[in-house]
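sry for the spam today, last one i promise. struct tokens for design, 229 residues
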């Protein structure tokens, strides 16, 4: 078995253990393999081991990998910051976008989604307390942004995403995930049928699953430490 296949199995075990501890079915949590900075060979290795969903942060890198794997029936998720002049290739090559943080980006993705593809599945990114990045809408704007995104014809609004600041203790990890889940529940109570909470990375997937994550986005624990040089 390849190192990546072994790591994938270890991550699946962490997911099932955390799911059982939370009293949730392990199948209610999907694993998104974050392959940014890793070569196509690493994606193929993971796909050969059965992994279907891959996440990328950079438009050109993601488009290149998605184009090179069209015959493998993989789902490509765009999870990085998105500038409005880069929306077209994302609308054309990805199945999901997790990082919608303003209406203009969503409008462009909807207008540019090719007619022969299913609607683009999207999450609104929320800047919860202790957010590491500056991206994501303010929690107070999340409901209005979700309502506007849900009205766009070529997008299907699925849920919310967040990237909290790393914390080493479980309580510190859980607090921002709980905040995202509470915003998610408020938006559902307002009538939008959200089913996706995209939260949890290599170091905090257990805390995210305890707070209701339905997609965990895992890079390092599958592919190893990234080298940006
Ligand atoms: C890089 C990245 C991940 C994966 O992080 P790891 O700590 O390597 O698991 C998840 N989500 C987003 C948005 C990322 O940019």
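last one done:
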């Amino acid at each position: 078995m390849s190192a990546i296949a072994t790591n994938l199995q270890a991550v699946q075990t962490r997911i099932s253990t955390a799911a059982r501890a939370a009293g949730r079915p392990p199948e209610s949590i999907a694993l998104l393999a974050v392959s940014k900075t890793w070569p196509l060979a690493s994606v193929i290795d993971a796909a050969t081991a059965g992994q279907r969903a891959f996440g990328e942060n950079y438009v050109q890198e993601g488009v290149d990998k998605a184009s090179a794997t069209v015959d493998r029936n993989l789902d490509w998720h765009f999870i990085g910051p998105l500038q409005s002049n880069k929306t077209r290739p994302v609308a054309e090559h990805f199945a999901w976008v997790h990082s919608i943080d303003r209406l203009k980006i969503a409008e462009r993705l909807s207008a540019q989604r090719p007619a022969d593809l299913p609607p683009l599945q999207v999450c609104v990114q929320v800047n919860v307390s202790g957010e590491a990045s500056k991206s994501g809408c303010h929690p107070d704007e999340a409901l209005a942004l979700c309502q506007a995104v849900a009205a766009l014809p070529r997008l299907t609004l699925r849920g919310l995403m967040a990237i909290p600041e790393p914390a080493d203790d479980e309580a510190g990890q859980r607090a921002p995930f709980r905040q995202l889940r509470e915003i998610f529940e408020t938006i559902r109570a307002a009538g939008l049928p959200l089913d996706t909470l995209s939260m949890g990375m290599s170091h905090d997937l257990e805390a995210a699953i305890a707070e209701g994550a339905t997609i965990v986005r895992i890079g390092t624990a599958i592919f190893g430490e990234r080298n940006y040089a």
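Residues 132 and 165 are 4 Å apart (CA to CA). ok im logging off now
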